[in-house]
């Protein structure tokens, strides 16, 4: 089954989690996913930043992690989805971004967001009530620094000299208003794998957001929409469910405690709420062909979170995504290594 559509970029996102408290092994396994994805032809590898530990891991320092990934890969682009911007010193962050971009040969993608953890904000001495304002303020400074302009004081510019980040800044949003704001700022759009607080399917909720974003876009370059989706292929639906079902159910019950989902969800409803695509690759292709936002997406960002499959199962899932699922939807690996900011 092949769907006619323009080529999109294929990505994967990891929240860097494992099954035990061996954080060193969890980090090594996440690095191996980048190596595997690089060899399989994935266009972009993304990491999520979490200062409060997740079950079995979590990544608080994404740019250190991506610097290591840059040394172990040759072509895959390296991004954050997202860096929690209000908790960063924007000038120091810009220096880290420019350093990793230089070391990687220009392969960095910067995704930013405001985060939501009150504990994280308290730990960094920031007011969570000002998270949107702080995100805007810090993004202005980061953009200024990455645009090779003076920041902080007259005469100061960051080093190393940044590459062109004009089309490499992304904003994660959770509302139609946020999508419009991202477009007005000239940022690419990142859409999450689940729409929290809504009963309707995630793609039905997010489709108007994408439409609003595109309608508000007034830049000369092509807008980019990164669509994050839970995708876990296996030899059959039963095998996939055994690897992911309990994790997804537990995650949904945890989120229900904070009001993101209704309480008392069963496993099937938890999988629906996380807009999950799982099973045999043919089943996933058929389901994704009906996905309402995918036709306007320039990037499909696959992830396994909130499931934490065994490392071998995760690698196998990446293989199936790159060799069976994505090609059936119209994706092809880039014909040559791309080490600069390239369009899709």
TrEMBL record:
It holds the Pfam family Bac_luciferase. Residues 13-254 form the Luciferase-like domain. This is Alkanesulfonate monooxygenase SsuD/methylene tetrahydromethanopterin reductase-like flavin-dependent oxidoreductase (Luciferase family). It comes from Streptomyces pseudovenezuelae. The lineage of its organism: Bacteria, Bacillati, Actinomycetota, Actinomycetes, Kitasatosporales.
């Amino acid at each position: 089954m092949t769907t006619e559509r323009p080529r999109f970029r294929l990505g994967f996102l990891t929240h860097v989690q494992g099954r035990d408290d061996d954080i060193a092994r969890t980090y090594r396994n996440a690095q191996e996913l980048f190596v595997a994805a690089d060899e399989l032809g994935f266009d972009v590898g993304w990491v999520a930043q979490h200062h409060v530990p997740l079950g079995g891991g979590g990544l608080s320092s994404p740019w250190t992690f991506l610097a290591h990934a840059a040394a172990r890969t040759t072509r895959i682009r390296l991004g954050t989805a997202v860096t929690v911007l209000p908790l960063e010193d924007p000038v120091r962050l810009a220096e880290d971004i420019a350093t990793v971009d230089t070391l990687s040969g220009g392969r960095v993608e910067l995704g930013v967001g405001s985060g939501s953890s009150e504990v994280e904000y308290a730990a960094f001495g920031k007011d969570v009530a000002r998270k949107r304002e702080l995100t805007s303020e810090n993004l202005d400074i980061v953009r200024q620094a990455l645009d090779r302009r003076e920041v902080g004081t007259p005469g100061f510019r960051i080093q190393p000299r940044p590459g062109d980040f004009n089309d490499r800044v992304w904003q994660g949003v959770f509302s139609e208003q946020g999508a419009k704001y991202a477009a007005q700022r000239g940022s690419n759009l990142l859409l999450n794998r689940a729409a929290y607080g809504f009963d309707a399917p995630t793609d039905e909720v997010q489709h108007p957001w994408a439409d609003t974003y595109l309608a508000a876009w007034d830049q000369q370059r092509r807008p980019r929409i990164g669509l994050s989706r839970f995708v876990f292929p296996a030899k059959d639906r039963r095998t996939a469910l055994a690897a992911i079902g309990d994790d997804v159910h537990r995650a949904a019950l945890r989120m229900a405690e904070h009001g993101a989902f209704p309480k008392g969800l069963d496993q099937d409803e938890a999988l629906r709420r996380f807009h999950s695509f799982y099973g045999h690759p043919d089943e996933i292709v058929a389901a994704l062909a009906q996905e309402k936002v995918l036709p306007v997406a320039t990037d499909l960002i696959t992830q396994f979170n909130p499931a934490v499959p065994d490392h071998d199962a995760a690698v196998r899932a990446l293989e199936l995504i790159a060799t069976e699922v994505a090609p059936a939807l119209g994706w092809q690996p880039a014909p040559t290594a791309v080490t600069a900011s390239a369009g899709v």
